[in-house]
Structure formats: C-alpha cells, structure tokens
Amino acid sequence: MVKFMHVGVPTKEVQDGENYADGLKVHITDPAEHDFMFEYLRYEPDTPLPEVMQNNPHIAFMVDDMQPYLDQYEVIVEPFAVNESLSVAFIIRDGVIFELMQES
Fold it and tell me: Which tens digits make up the pLDDT trace of 55-84?
C-alpha cells in the first residue's frame, strides 16, 4: 500500500497552528487543517535536518514497509519514531524528497 498523506512546504513565515518539534527544531503545521493537505515547516537555524529539506518541499506517503525504499534510494533522514505507532524517514528519488511514513 502507498497512500498519499501530505505535501511538506518549507516557509520562513510564522503559520497559524504551528507546533514545535523540539528535537528537530522545526515548527510544523497539521496538514489535516489545510484544504490541500499542506504541512508548513519553519526551521530553526540550528535544526539537525539536512539543508536540502529546509529548502525544498517533500511529498509524504504512508507505506506498508519503508525498507525497500530505503534500500533502493538515497536516504537523507534515517528512520525515526514520531510516536509509539509511527516511524518516518526521508529519501530522494528522481530529485524529489519523499517522506515515508510507516505505522507499527
């Protein structure tokens, strides 16, 4: 299964409804609150996330198993747990950043 989840859009502007992800040092909006499923990301200067993510949008998909994608494409953020039931990773395929989301 591959299911579209959202489009991540970097921004320098403060957005309504931002939540702060302390470990990632990024302010994030909830894509479920946007008509077109946009997730705005406003990065702190010392974020540990790669510069390519800070300057380019990404497309997020829920997948049954992210490992085949991790094995096949360039991984820019290794898998990490968002919470006890969701892990994410970021890859680049054909010059596009993809967020892979996997429920556990």
Answer: 999 999 999 999 999 999 999 999 999 999
DSSP assignment string, 15-69 = -TT-EEETTTTEEE--GGGSTT-EEEEEE-TT-SS-HHHHHS-EEEEEES--HHH
* Domain count across the chain: 1
Q: Which residue range is the domain that position 28 belongs to? A: 2-103
End-to-end, the C-alpha distance of the chain in Å comes to: 14
4 token code pair? 């579209």
What is the Cα–Cα distance from 15 to 13, expressed in whole angstroms?
Answer: 6
Those residues whose C-beta lies under 8 Å from the C-beta of residue 29, and which sit 6 or more positions away, are 15, 16, 17, 18, 19, 38, 39, 40
Q: What CATH number corresponds to the domain at position 44?
A: 3.10.180.10
Q: How far apart are CA 7 and CA 27, in angstroms?
A: 15
